[in-house]
Amino acid sequence: MTLPADSKARQAIRPVICYPNETLPKPDMPLYSAARETAQKINEVIIPAREAACFHVNAGQFFRITSVEGPQVGDLNLWNAHDLSERFYSGKTRALHGTHITTGERLWSSFPCLRPMATITADTLGWYGIDQYGGSVHDVIGTRCDPYTGNLLAGTQYHHCCHSNLIRALADETGMSLAQAEPHIHDVLNVFMCTGFTRDTGQYFMKASPVRPGDYLEFFAEIDLLGALSACPGGNCSTGHSSDEAACYPLLVEVFTPEAGSLTGWQSPPKNGYDQTHGR
Predict the structure, then answer these.
(1) Domain limits, the chain
(2) What is the pLDDT of residue 242?
């Protein structure tokens, strides 16, 4: 390979942020915090190890994902509870907020709606930051472990990966067949997962999650939500996934509703205002 004479100059060009986010609508975190203080728990769902389950959250409620019993990561899908075609858009969330998200940042929905679905209001792993390897927690870069990649790389037929777990959970919740449910499963928020990219090869890596029992990630639901969470077969993702080898533990989802009147002034965000004429 021959290097061009100006290779160093090309590499030295300073990067430009693709989507400066200073003009994004800001969540009213003090209002959410005050409302959370009045909120009462109304439901909980235990996600068994190596399985997934669905849960419902109304707009204006809070939901919390907690590690219980042992260090465990989870793969989260979210849909508009009334229209499954509007779902969590991890790629645009990544473009707007970065590869890993935390308190005050939002989970955005797919086109053509592109609006906040949920806002992160608490993160007990917010202290972790970015480590010496470039790793951080709660990523929107990984796609979810799946049986197709497992078959491609290892010739396996493993059915308790997160993709299949989420399919079964959605089918059970909605009455759809597995074939009908599968197209609705989408790229995830990797809750508690510690990941990054290697500097030499640019490969996606994972490492042992810093999560411990009692750690949680909490959200404010901006719209009515149907959620599905898989307790990943990778456990804390310290060695591998898509197998029964890792120690795995349940996850807990809790839903809280604030007192009436505690969200005065808040409105569920409307769908994106683009006119969809696309130049015609």
Answers:
(1) 45-257
(2) 72
Q: How many CA atoms lie within 13 A of 210 on its CB side?
A: 15
Q: Dump pLDDT digits (tens) for 130-178.
A: 999 999 999 999 999 999 999 999 999 999 999 999 999 999 999 999 9
Q: In the prediction, which pLDDT does 189 show?
A: 98
Task: Report yes or no: 51 and 165 within 8 Å, Cβ to Cβ.
Answer: yes
- In this predicted model, what pLDDT tens digit does every residue of 24-67 receive, in sequence order? 999 999 999 999 999 999 999 999 999 999 999 999 999 999 99
Beta strands in the chain (DSSP E): 40-47, 52-57, 62-67, 74-80, 83-87, 106-108, 116-123, 136-139, 189-197, 204-207, 216-221, 225-231, 251-257
Residues 108 and 93 sit within 8 Å (Cβ to Cβ): yes
Residue 9 is given by DSSP the state H
DSSP annotation of 153: H
Match 């037929």 to its residue by tokens: 157
Q: CA–CA separation, 55 vs 144, rounded Å?
A: 19
Using DSSP's 3-state secondary structure scheme, residue 105 falls into coil
Going by the DSSP 8-state scheme, the letter that residue 88 receives in this structure is B
Residues whose CB falls within 8 Å of the CB of residue 120, separated by 6 or more in sequence, listed in order: 101, 102, 103, 104, 105, 106, 107, 217, 218, 219
From residue 206, give the alpha-carbon distance in Å to each of 113, 134, 139, 210, 248: 32, 11, 10, 12, 16
